[in-house]
Amino acid sequence: MVEFVVEFGKKGTAPNGGLDAPAFHRNHEAIWSAIGSSLSTQTGDVLELGSGTGQHITTFAARTPRLIWWPSDIYPSHLSSIEAWRQHTGLANVRAPQRIDLTDLAWIWTADEQTGPLLTAMLCINVLHISPWTVAQNLIAGAGRYLRDGGRLFVYGPFKRDGEHIAPSNAAFDQSLRAENPDWGVRDVADLNTLARDAGLTPAEIAPMPANNLVLAFTRAVRQN
Ligand SMILES: C[S@@+](CC[C@H](N)C(=O)[O-])C[C@H]1O[C@@H](n2cnc3c(N)ncnc32)[C@H](O)[C@@H]1O
Q1: pLDDT of residue 225
Q2: What does pTM read for this prediction?
Q3: For 44, phi and psi rounded to 5 degrees?
Q4: How close is the Cα of 118 to the center of ligand 1, in Å?
Q5: Most exposed: 27, 67, 115, 151, by fewest CB within 10 Å?
Q6: Comparing 224 with 137, which gets the higher pLDDT?
Q7: Ligand 1 atom nearest 5 alpha carbon
Q8: Rounded CA gap, 214 and 183, in Å?
Q9: DSSP letter (8 states) at residue 150
Q10: Does residue 2 have a pLDDT over 60?
Q11: Whose CA is nearest to atom 14 of ligand 1?
């Protein structure tokens, strides 16, 4: 089992046995302000990786009835929580959570019969700094595989830019992450852009967020063949 930061200990406070993440309440409106205008006009399928409690995906799905949302995670209690939020909200456009482990290079999104083979968008919130670098590699390689031409990959979290932390608090956070697990740490946008280029994505458009976080938006370039 891959280790991860648990901020999901608030059992019993959410309906249906779902979990409640304090960070969700702090960050979801800011994240929506960066991704909502792009997603609201779209149709198709959106895959979230590392959905955690399921609060982001159900909140965003309620605002975009023309999109189908696909939650995923690795951890059983998170998969149960996502399902609890899905049942509670009763949203017709959220599919059952599936187990996707981004440490697996060949990770697979399991679509259904109505679904096209490619995605309109992918979303990954607060995962890349609490997982090994291979998770970033496999997320972006997967975006190259699964996004349709012009599809977007949105990634939220704390990031460095050109080797520098964007705030002293991020530097301290990075140190504490690495002390807890040497494989974790605040990633650099420049390194992610290198992965993106190799996967057929554009460099990230960057939206500053509260508390020194960023939303990175990568776009799948048009396939040439
Ligand atoms: C800090 S939580 C963020 C959860 C949610 N995105 C949010 O912002 O509320 C990190 C999430 O990444 C998931 N995760 C960790 N390693 C993963 C991996 N290798 N593949 C997929 N998900 C992973 C954890 O189970 C957890 O749900």
Answers
A1: 73
A2: 0.96
A3: 110, -155
A4: 23
A5: 115
A6: 137
A7: 1
A8: 21
A9: E
A10: no
A11: 50
